[in-house]
Amino acid sequence: MTDDFEPRIIGFLCNWCSYTGADLAGVSREKIPTSFHVIRVMCSGRIDPLFVLRAYLKGADGVMAMGCHPGDCHYLKGNYNARRRFVMLEQIFKTLGLDSTRIGLWWVSASEGKKYARVTTEFSAETKKKGPNPIQKEIFI
Amino acid sequence: MSVRIGVYVCECGPNIPDKIDIDKVLEDIAPLNNVAAAKRFRLLCSNDGKKYLADEIRKEKLTHLVVAACSPREHEKTFMQVCVEAGLNPYLFQMVNIREQCAWMIPDKAEATRMAAKHIRAGISRVALHGPLSKKELTVNPDVLIIGGGISGIEAALSLASKTRKVAIIERSDSLGGRTGKLSRLLLHQGTDVSVLREKIEKIEKDENISVLTGCEVTDIRGFLGNFEVRIESSGEEAVSRSIVVGAVVVATGCELWDGYDPAVYGAGNIDDVVTAAEFEDMIAAGKILLKNGKPPRSVALIHCVGRKEKGYCSKVCCLYALKFAHHLRDSRAPAEVYEFYSDLCLPEKTDQEYFDGAVKKGVHFLRTENVRVEKRNGHIVVEHGDGAGKKKTLEVDMAVLAPALVPPPGSEKLARMLNIPLDETGFFKEAHAMLDPVAAPIEGVYIAGCASGPKNINESVVQAQAASGKILSTLVPGKTLEPEVKISVINEDLCTGCQTCLSVCFYGAISFQAHKGVSAVNEAICRGCGSCVGSCPSGAISSRHFTYRQLYEEIFEALR
Amino acid sequence: MTSRETRKDKRAAVLPAREGIQKAVTGFLKKALERGCFEAVMMPVRAPETRSYAWLMVKNPELLDEAAPLPPVMSVQGGRALSSLTKHGAPPLSIGVVLRPCEARAAVELVKLKQIQLDDVHVITIDCPGALPLKDYVRGGENALDRFQALLEHWDEDGAIRPACERCHRFSLDISDEDRPLAPSSKNGAFPVEIHIGLLGENKEEILLIPLNPSGEETLEKLGLTPDRPLDGWAARVRALRKKKEEKRRAGHEEFKKEISGLDRFLAVFDACINCHNCQNVCPVCYCQQCHFDSPRQHLTAQRYLDRARRRGALRLPLDPLLFHLGRMSHMVLSCVSCGACEDACPVSIPVGKVFSLVADETQPHFQYTAGKSADEPLPLQSFLKSEFCEVETPSECREHQSPEVKSHA
Amino acid sequence: MPKSLKTNTDVSQGVRDFLKHLLESGKVKGVLALKKMDGSGAASYAFMTSAKELAEAEPLAPLMPANAGKILSELTLKEAFGEPVAAFLRPCELRAFTELLKRLQGSRENVLLISPTCGGVFPLKFLADGSAKEKVPAYQQAARKGKNAEGLRAACRACTDFIPCQADITVAFAGGADSDSSCRLFLETPRGEEFARGAPGTFGEEKLETRELAGLREERAAQKAALFQDIGKAIQGPSALARTFSACLGCHGCSHVCPICHCLLCVFDSKMHDSQPEGFDSELERKGGTRIPAGTLFFHIGRMTHMAVSCVQCGMCSDVCPVDIPVTEVFSLVGDSLQKVLEYVPGRDVEEPVPSGTYKEDEFAQVGEQ
Predict the structure, then answer these.
(1) Per the domain annotation, does D368 fall within a domain?
(2) Which residue segment(s) compose the domain that D159 sits in?
(3) Does residue C318 have a cis peptide bond before it, meaning omega lies within 30 degrees of 0?
(4) Is D274's CB within 8 Å of C88's CB?
(5) Integer Cα distance of B223 and B226 in angstroms
(6) Looking at beta carbons, which residues of chain B come within 8 Å of A18?
(7) Which pLDDT tens digit goes with each residue over C263-287?
């Protein structure tokens, strides 16, 4: 893969933990990969698999969803729903031979600015290794 | 009316321009569809900043507003207020975070500039789809439901009840008082005795603002701070059920004595004169401490920490009531020998040390031990115990009193499920924060007092009851109105198939099924707007205000442009 | 000058087509794309390593290598494709789109129904020899392709093509008596057909590009093509074939009428219907987001089902499909363009197309209406003449409003 | 051993007689089952209340003009039956009905559920070209012997769940060795026994399992493995997927006939997913071309996220596809894998919650912890 390839990654962040964690990362001047586009939702439970699917089919090189750690959901249990939906979506991807490692769910708490920076950077690096999302070449979808 | 979006980039002093080429951003977005104005300002959150923004909204006749600045968690509310003052519905506004999540995190200025522009574009195409939303007001119901008629419940009731605030106590048993009511007397050194409790109970019985429902249990409860609908059913034969509405709930369900220990180890039940603390209390209350054979015991073993290992926590109160027993035994006319088998002494209160020293003076034997066994050997009760140095020792006594761990009462899980509040690993109710918010449950409007959240002594329980009452008194002021969440879920009845998946994923019980229409409906007072139901509805019949599919799809699209 | 002023001396530019018309036409569009006549082209393209055709909007000319202005089948009706692209606003760039005449007619109807917005869409129509039945093509293997190739070359279908195409007399432009080629007209340019591609010229190795409006002429000019070939020959052939087809159509309708005359026979036609509503979902002029006949209004209570079953001893389920088909007919038949998409999509091969196109031919004339003829003609049910259809009233009522002939829009 | 009721006629007649008995004895007021259409071999579902009409019933006709689970759901959607009725459903239709019940799309109250050990059905195109009729005798023989008949639908050839669950009465058809000369009904539930009481025939205790059933189970399992392997290969990766669905017309017939898809308006047909005029230019820029109408894969994979975990593999979707896309094969494969991961068996038990509406706090602990 050419080095100038900068993976386009979308991050769906829950408002209470992960988005705050992202802010903290900024406040503590952590570095995150460029071309990481944050979309805020109130709860990871709001993240409809269709969002991830749509982003993937529209050519996102990676999609990260982030929410509060299990048990810490601001809305009690929304993240458990999110987790099931991701297990389901990832299994669909696997079965269809789509690269399920291009999508994923991470728990990032409001105090985990460092973790936020780490997981986004790692994910972006891995994605960079993989190269662009092959779906971008498919016209007939 | 045509859409006129105003985009305003805040410099936030040097914070943003140092890292982002604002002019480049502006020239990138100025030509976009519907963008009527794209400008920068030194510090929008400052007073002249807010004034500037308000003037701009009027001057440019803006229909929608985008502010690119710090995190919405910082100043979203500030700018929404500006909208209100400028006569623009505050929900026709979108905040874009280019400080924390662009300027401060992306080292390369060109990149940071590019990403800032992208996020703003997303904000612009999203805001164009915003519709006006209006806040609703909800008058709170000041009344309070107290679950559990023990000392905590009683204390809370007394602190809360007034002409303007009715209180209902639900007690499973047939009388108030709880564990405290079963005590022969309180700790002597604290100078009071149980008559105080009796007085409190009488007060309650006189107070017409407090209704006591004994022999009753809560069978369903749904709602939120200011508005809980509670279903109560009497557990007796002629089961009657009724519904009440309250504004807050105090969980004061207390605790029980653990009886799950191995009788083979502690002998209780199958060896005469091996009794539990509760049974010993009754003996004290009855005024005669006698063996089965009618004789007073010449020697008594007080066994601490029964179940501490198994349960994994110290029950806090045992040491002190064991001391109480010791004092009592030593003070009687024919004092018995008293042996306290403990593994660690817990003497937290300032007066406890003195209480302990007193017992020592009175000749109580304290044995630090481990692996205690109580057995019957040739007609005598033998307490076998390790001395810590690995040696086994035995001691013969006439009577042994067990101090079992305090455990959550049965039905706690059921109640926790109904209230949507968690239990911790010990099975007690989990506080919002064990140290910093100890009497609040994770759900607004639900409070926890006393042993419901773990073993406590009486004064701690009373303190907690008063604390919880304080919180309620300050939030549930009669006549006060609450603003329920605006960005809630809404259901399109034409698309709803009534499959009720949404009900199963709503942890607030905010969605109910309307059988006559065959569709689900959202209770606006209860919905918190998390959107779990939206993500779960296959029909797309539910949409969450301010986070609709179209709005989020626009963001996705812009992110990938 | 525009199509309405076209005179006998109207001429067409000639495009050599030695490697077959598909390549020729595609080449023409590639060139138009490169020369910037429009920014993108929309036409059917074969998906790599498959035999299936799908509509693509294309900016990169290379993607047109597998394009076919006349694919062997009509997969998605062009009108429907165009509507899915433009119903929420014209795309932000200029598009050239190649449509079969029936697709163009559907598009005209959809323009009237505000389901298509054509600012900056350059419509190009093409003489259409017809298409193969979808199922034959899907199941028929390679020889289906050969059959279609033959059809393209000789235009004599041997029962290989869809019934709708077999009896389609509107496979080209309408040709008026003085050999005017008439595209679907529209004064306000709501539906600008700028070029028609004539395949029925003297010479099989030539294609005629007939400019129908200034913008069409401009396009040809940009491509260095001069319209100098007279149309007489082509027009004559079109008229001849049209006569033949009209005959077939009449005969076909007559025969089919017999087949379905009498309620029982008519019912029997829909016997096999399984209520998948594919016909409605592929119909270009069925543009509703949700079909009225799929809506919950249809549900009865268990008791009602039982009662209705008791009346006749048995109740067919799902509920009698006739309600759906006749209901749908009442909604769209005046706009039916006889494209046959419905029949193609029917999994149990009900001759839906035949029925609807027959009814269309019998109803539209009552309103002097021809679906897809002109974007200016108001939809029959959106307008009325005060003095029309008196026969359905009592004479007295009729006399009351012998008002002047004003065509008013409801 | 389960109770059984045996009569000495061929199974089709036996079932018809039994249904007739239920109707005439007034035990049920109506019967939902396949019914001959005049003329062609075509059959359609009918709700019959008269013995005369019932005589035309063909409960075991090897056709599935619609998933009867969906039909029974429509009958009982607004209210439960006030009077008892009988419904003859194939095992996959029964599973579909159960899944619909979980989604509160109907009621089992007062419905006697009868279901056969299923020999599979023919593709709808045989219904269209009328060739179903002459295929029936061979079909019945094969089914009896526990073999896949010539020309069955792919979904049926590979169906290993051909023994009904949740039925009140099971009919020994497929693998019912002597089903040409005898009809055996197995009374699985008290309700089944109650309705069968007093019906002509000999009551006894038998077991359903036969050598033939075992054989069928084997053949089907092998077929399923093969089918999953082939389709798995055929769809691996973006290009292959795009190829598989390249011919899709977007008629969405697959979702209209899908018994799990119970939505009034499919969300993918709703305005929410109409393509917007923006949207195109940047994609065109990047890809050089885009498909119109857009979102073919989005529809199919998206639909998977909604229903695949409950897919009962009834095969209707492939059957109605005008362009012969192997929809059932793909969805079965995905459904099967989802059901394994979530330890879910669609149609097994009404009480078993649909995975999308529930969760366990201690499951999938590894997720999110990278």
Answers:
(1) no
(2) 3-219
(3) yes
(4) yes
(5) 8
(6) none
(7) 888 888 888 889 899 999 999 999 9
